[in-house]
Design a protein that fits this description.
mainly alpha; Farnesyl Diphosphate Synthase; globular
Length: 279
């Protein structure tokens, strides 16, 4: 087996759901998908890796400034930018889509939680759904043909991931949970470092899981009969379905769920869905 590229290793290690899904893409586009997903990782990890927002904004500006050269085939010397340049040019990804994803990630630096579920869903659509749209371009599909699938699919994936991340976010003292749901739980999102060690987050997790499941069902209904070529962009949704079922069995307690990871069911789920040709 050939050694994995830098982008593929980054996605494998830090965004394994998309890595597993990307393995089912055609050989000639797989590395392009990994470059896109590695770019998304570069943006998403900025807030966690900087000591202050100003430094984060400088890193985002690096990527904004890099977009025109990426499209011109003269990317900056960077382990992700160089393969990404090849990917976006082959797929004809518009500059507006790349910069919109960068702009959406600037919200991360404000350290202000979304006011409610609606605001969180809007953020998820501008990030998670946007990545799916660009993945479709790499797969040779037009995102405009999947408008009814993209938004709910991206939101479902993002909400499912956020619920699973609640224990980690609480441990870091920085949460991105809806402020109104935190208030119902008696928890201040701006003071997460003062939360109890094992807070009862069901007032937060239950509504998020219900919303994620609603979006999941909507995406699956709209995505029936989609071409197999488009499937790898949406396969992370099949893993979200697996996580939602597990979280439901654990009483919507992400800490309990984290102690019982799905293990081998993850790759089997992606394999089975790819064989069925459905999300």
């Amino acid at each position: 087996m050939a050694a994995l590229s830098y982008c593929a290793r980054q996605v494998r290690d830090f965004d394994n759901d998309r890595f597993l899904s990307g393995l089912f893409a055609a050989d000639h586009v797989r590395e392009d998908l990994f470059a896109l997903y590695a770019f998304n990782l570069e943006l998403s990890k900025i807030r966690e890796t900087v000591s202050e927002p100003l430094i984060g904004r400088m890193r985002l500006q690096f990527w904004r400034d890099a977009v025109p050269p990426l499209l011109q085939g003269t990317p900056p010397a960077h382990a992700v930018a160089e393969p990404l340049s090849q990917s976006v040019r082959r797929a004809a990804i518009p500059e507006t889509e790349l910069t919109a994803l960068i702009d959406a990630r600037e919200t991360d630096l404000d350290d202000v939680p979304p006011r409610d579920l609606s605001a969180l869903e809007d953020y998820a659509a501008r990030t998670s759904s946007s990545v799916m749209a660009m993945a479709l371009r790499i797969l040779g599909e037009d995102p405009d043909d999947y408008g009814d699938v993209l938004r709910p699919a991206g939101i479902a994936v993002a909400l499912g991931g956020l619920v699973r991340a609640i224990p980690y976010q609480a441990s870091t003292g920085r949460v991105t949970l809806p402020a109104d749901l935190c208030a119902k739980a008696g928890l201040d999102p701006a003071q997460a470092h003062q939360w109890p060690q094992n807070p009862d987050v069901r007032e937060i997790s239950v509504p998020l899981l219900h919303a994620a499941n609603d979006h999941l069902l909507r995406a699956r209904a709209a995505g029936r009969g989609m071409p197999r070529a488009a499937l790898p962009a949406f396969l992370p949704l099949s893993l979200t379905a697996l996580y939602l079922k597990g979280l439901e069995r654990c009483g919507a307690d992400p800490a309990r769920y984290a102690a019982r990871p799905p293990g081998v069911r993850r790759p089997l789920t992606v394999f089975w869905r790819s064989m069925l040709g459905s999300i």
